[in-house]
Design brief:
There is one protein chain. This protein has a domain of about 120 residues: Glutaredoxin (3-Layer(aba) Sandwich), CATH 3.40.30.10. Helix content is about 70%, strand content about 5%. The protein contains eleven helices and five strands; from the N terminus they run H-E-E-H-H-H-E-H-E-E-H-H-H-H-H-H. The relative contact order is 0.05. InterPro entries: Thioredoxin-like_sf (IPR036249), Thioredoxin_CS (IPR017937), Thioredoxin_domain (IPR013766), TMX_domain-containing (IPR052454). It is a single-pass type I membrane protein.
């Protein structure tokens, strides 16, 4: 009687306990992952971890087919990270646009090698064997590092990261307007245009206020004095320039006068030299004429008295003929001297 009375109840309680135990064990078994990933996701908050040690980073997007093809190879490479003594990370450019701007990622997938804060771009295939040889054989040493403003840790690339972050937020906001709220795309564009204009006006107003605070305007009387001072300085400068021009003109005039005086003195010196030469020529000509006369007088030999008396008439005729050429020579000399005297008179100023 007792077994028949409590038997159905015991069976029901036992079935309920087994069902409860199974329901409790089911979620725990489902929650256990098949295999934990060794790839560390990098974000804007923890990306500075790559500044220490050796790292390999992969930039990808969920919609990128090439990125999906290299996922398994990247996971295998990450599992061997302990053997290779390297850390492996990945960056989702959709969720972290700031990091894509900091590394200036333009193609996907993109791979980077980091060694103690020095970054290099890996341009090989995303295959495990190539990645392993790149680390073991230290092929990264032959790659030019990203230094200067190209370094992800530089101030320039930090500004680039900020711009990419803003663009990513604007893109997410646009998707929220068009997809979640169902607003037309042109309405979203109009909203962003108006927001840009308002933001620009606001920033201009802020800059004006800051300039007014740091550079307060001078009182009116001080400004008038400053204007008068500026005018007086300008007038003084103009006077100085005018004086300098006048001095230049005076110096040029003096130079011209000196040059004219020098030219006149040279002309006078040349005239004196010509006169001296003419006087010397005149003296030479006169001396030559005197010598010719003395030679003519010395040529006649003494003759007998009879011959003198008989030949008086022929001698007279000969003397006449000899005197005629002498007188002609003297006239030619005098004419040449007169012409030479008239030449310096014409050359004179």
């Amino acid at each position: 009687m007792a077994d028949g009375r409590y038997g159905p109840r015991l069976r029901a309680l036992l079935a309920a306990w087994v069902a409860a135990a199974t329901a409790a064990a089911g979620p725990e078994q489902a929650a256990l992952p098949a295999e934990q990933s060794r790839v560390q996701p990098m974000t804007a908050s923890n990306w500075t971890l790559v500044m220490e040690g050796e790292w390999m980073l992969k930039f990808y997007a969920p919609w990128c087919p090439s990125c999906q093809q290299t996922d398994s190879e990247w996971e295998t490479f990450a599992k061997n990270g302990d053997i290779l003594q390297i850390s492996v990370g990945k960056v989702d450019v959709i969720q972290e646009p700031g990091l894509s701007g900091r590394f200036f990622v333009t193609t996907l997938p993109a791979f980077f090698h980091a060694k103690d804060g020095i970054f290099r771009r890996y341009r090989g295939p995303g295959i495990f064997e190539d990645l392993q040889n790149y680390i073991l054989e230290k092929k990264w040493q032959s790659v030019e590092p990203l230094t200067g403003w190209k370094s992800p840790a530089s101030l320039t690339m930090s500004g680039m990261a900020g711009l990419f972050s803003i663009s990513g937020k604007i893109w997410h906001l646009h998707n929220y307007f068009t997809v979640t709220l169902g607003i037309p795309a042109w309405c979203s564009y109009v909203f962003f245009i108006i927001a840009t204009l308002v933001f620009g006006l606001f920033m201009g107003l802020v800059l004006v206020i800051i300039s007014e605070c740091f550079y307060a305007p001078l009182p009116r009387h001080l400004s008038d004095r400053s204007e008068q001072k500026l005018r007086s300085e300008e007038a003084h400068r103009a006077e100085q320039l005018q004086d300098a021009e006048e001095e230049k003109d005076d110096s040029n005039e003096e130079e011209n006068k000196d040059s004219l005086v020098d030219d006149e003195e040279e002309k006078e010196d040349l005239g004196d030299e010509d006169e001296v030469e003419e006087e010397e020529e005149e003296d030479n000509l006169v001396a030559g004429v005197d010598e010719e006369r003395s030679e003519v007088n010395d040529q006649g030999p003494p003759r007998e008295d009879s011959a003198v008396h008989e030949e008086v008439e022929p001698e007279e005729t000969e003397e006449d003929t000899s005197e005629q050429p002498c007188s002609a020579d003297t006239e030619v000399v005098e004419d040449s001297l007169r012409q030479r005297k008239s030449v310096p008179a014409d050359k004179g100023p």
